């Protein structure tokens, strides 16, 4: 299913950085319901969504790749996964940190586009980066003050 996703990061110094995930596949596989009627992707409650990134190598370098995961904070269900270069994630985190020093918000925006239609756009301040072994890389993550992990 990752083949249907594309990811782009806009990280300009004057604006809030944006992760845009574009889905170009069968909508029923992303938005809809399971056989038991359970929602697969609940866009009505974007506050439950968490973003994380797991690199495929030991170190976070520009030539490393990994997987961006969007999960439901309450259920732990994966909403989507998308292949992405570490370079894009590093630019997002760097721009959000720069924004934090200028504006004090530390925000980035997550946007999901399905078949050329923006269906979700939400500001986030938490972004966790993990190494190949599942260990949190705090120096590459966005963790707001007051959050303990």
What does this structure look like?
- The relative contact order is 0.22.
- The protein is globular.
- The chain contains one helix and eight strands.
- The protein is mainly beta and 149 residues long.
- The protein has one helix at residues 86-103; strands at residues 5-10, 18-23, 49-55, 65-72, 78-85, 108-114, 117-124, 127-130.
Index terms:
1 helix, 149 residues, mainly beta, single chain, four-stranded mixed sheet
Order of helices and strands: EEEEEHEEE
Q: Ranges with pLDDT <50 over ≥5 residues?
A: none
The proportion of residues in beta strands is 35-45%
| Radius of gyration, in angstroms, nearest whole number | 15 Å
Q: Using DSSP, what is the number of strands?
A: 8
Number of helices: 1
User: Percent range for helical residues?
Assistant: 10-25%
Euclidean distance between termini CA atoms: 30 Å
Main sheet: strands, sense, barrel: 4 strands, mixed
Pairing-aware structural class of the strands and helices? mainly beta
Q: What is the overall silhouette?
A: globular
Average pLDDT score: 82
Largest beta sheet: strand ordering? 1-2-6-7
């Amino acid at each position: 299913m990752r083949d249907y996703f594309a990811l782009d990061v806009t990280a300009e110094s004057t604006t809030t950085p944006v992760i845009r995930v574009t889905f170009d596949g069968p909508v029923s596989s992303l938005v809809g319901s399971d056989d038991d009627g359970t929602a697969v992707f609940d866009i009505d409650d974007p506050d439950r969504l968490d973003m994380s990134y797991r690199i495929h190598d030991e170190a976070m370098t520009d030539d490393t790749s990994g997987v961006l995961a969007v999960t439901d904070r309450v259920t732990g269900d994966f909403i989507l996964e998308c292949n992405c270069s570490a370079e894009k994630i590093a630019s997002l985190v760097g721009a959000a940190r720069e924004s934090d020093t200028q504006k004090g918000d530390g925000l980035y925006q997550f946007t999901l586009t399905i078949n050329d239609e923006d269906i979700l756009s939400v500001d986030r301040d938490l972004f966790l980066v993990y190494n190949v072994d599942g260990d949190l890389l705090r120096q590459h993550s966005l963790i707001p003050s007051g959050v303990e992990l």
